[in-house]
Design a protein that fits this description.
The complex is a heterodimer. By secondary structure, chain A is α/β, with parallel strands linked by helices. Chain A contains 20 helices and 16 strands. Chain A folds into three domains: 107 residues, 3-Layer(bba) Sandwich (Glucose Oxidase, domain 1), CATH 3.50.30; 116 residues, PtsI, HPr-binding domain (Enzyme I, Chain A, domain 2); 276 residues, Phosphoenolpyruvate-binding domains (TIM Barrel), CATH 3.20.20. In chain A, strand 9, helix 9 and strand 10 form a beta-alpha-beta unit. Chain B contains three helices and four strands. The termini of chain B are far apart. Classes of the chains: A alpha/beta, B alpha+beta.
Chain lengths: 536, 85
Amino acid sequence: MEVYEGKASFKGIAIGKIAEMKKTETVVRRVHVDNTEHEIARYHAAKEQAQAEIMELHDKALKEVGEAQAEIFEVHSMFLDDFDDSVENIINEQSVNAEYAVATTGDNTAAMLAAMDDNPYMQARQTDVKDVADRVIRDMNGGSGHGNEFTEEVLLVADDLAPSETVSLDKSKVLAFVTREGSTNSHTAILARTMNIPALCQTPVPKEADGKLGIVDGFTGKIFVDPDEDTLKKYQNLADAEAEKKRLLKELKGKDTVTRSGRKIKLYANIGGIGDLNFVLENDAAGIGLFRSEFLYLQSNDYPSEDEQFKAYRTVAEMMAGKEVVVRTLDIGADKQVDYFKLDKEDNPALGFRAIRICLTREEVFKTQLRALYRASAYGKIDIMFPMITSVWEVERAKQLCREVQAELTAQNIPFKQVPIGIMIETPAAVMVADDLAEQVDFFSIGTNDLTQYTLAIDRQNQHLERFFNPHHPAVLKEIQMTIEAGHRHNTWVGICGELGADPELTETFVRMGIDELSMSPSSILPVRKIIRDME
Amino acid sequence: MKQFQYKVRDPQGMHARPAGILSAEAKKFTSKLTVKAGGESADLKKILSVMGLAVKCGDTLTINVEGDDEIAAAKVMEEVFKKNF
């Protein structure tokens, strides 16, 4: 197995036979001619034919890949019109053949574009100019024909691909593009995006790879030649998952998450930072059900300032454009340690100083976060959620701090909105007093990871306990049921944001229990949407 | 001779598409149209020569029009610049 690395210009996985693009080499010789008029006439005849071909390509591109892709051929046509002066000059002044004059004109123009160091777009147009020149030269010598017809699906490898080459290809047979040159600005890259297939450029794969089995990884920019069994298996699984995702996306994007009998479920995404937002939008989440605010603290060497936090929350609120964003306030301690908090070492951190317990002890730290959240609320639809609640007084105190922050902002004339308040249900205590808690808040979100650990008294990191650990334990399911019922008695909506929320075996159970919202990693959203849409 | 100036607003600067539109429109006139950017000038009727100016967003271009239909050409081309570039 050999691996070659280049630049990924479009992501995706493709497995297939590697096929080297066959090019009709245009070797141009400089020949002295006496009858320059005849050469000029030859040029014009070939040019006319070339223009007709370019228009044909334009129409083909228009049909297959759309107007944006077709436009480049209009530009080609204009490039060719501009060749006249230079070609005629060279023929007349140097008494040379038309082929040489066209090739020289193409080279000179390409060199001019190549010299634009600070403009990668213009540099990428070299390929277009050379493409036009080659076409005219071919037409002077009896026309074209690449011989690139494939009987099976291939990973197409080439030095570089001209737009006319990509358009004239039978695209139903191409699984991926790999070029040794080219850039992420090239037409091949743009075409790959339109076709939704992986593409690599600047990848030094040798010509000898032609005909061998290959894997293109458009996520990491690699091509594997003659992959070993393990690699092949791994990528086959990845490719299957990708294909399934694409199919689901196409089918389910933009559709409601609703059962056949008409019950709507809010399908939200869990995110751990702003970088995840693209996946959220790509997978069509209806909102964010768990925005873990810890990342702001974990990636920093000191307490993040109010402004820093405000900017992050605001960005998320704005990017979600009016969709609900549930931000969980600081949840550190236990397995998530931050040096500058200077927390004591504990014998039993899971039962120790963490989450809301830290926040209600160091209220100034907590209030900084609350202020940032309220300020960001003016820019979208933000909800605030408190973690690790066991008692009603904790919620009352946290809400009191929210009121203080609101009063401060009002006094300072800083805009904010009314923010729904919710809590995590992740301790058995919270389940038992869920009725009292529900009176205090607008929503519950069940954190099944901690709830399972605290209910079963099992540390999930301890591998000796695996056989005792049952994520579908009836005790946990019963707690979920109790929480939903308590919430609904008080008009409090109830969701699940732990791993169980994305467990396809339990989706139906939760919907029947009356769950209002399920929040999960973005990649699980569409598969779960499918299950719900198939339910009665 | 007619002359007008234009400040480029297209964030990408001069790329193939507007250059193509400009030269296509310029070819409809018999007048000679020259575009100047920095110290260099180009024939507006030739897309490759216009692209060669490597015009960037914020650059100021000076366009000279000379010929029989220069009044109409200057007027129309100024609109074309505003609309596409």
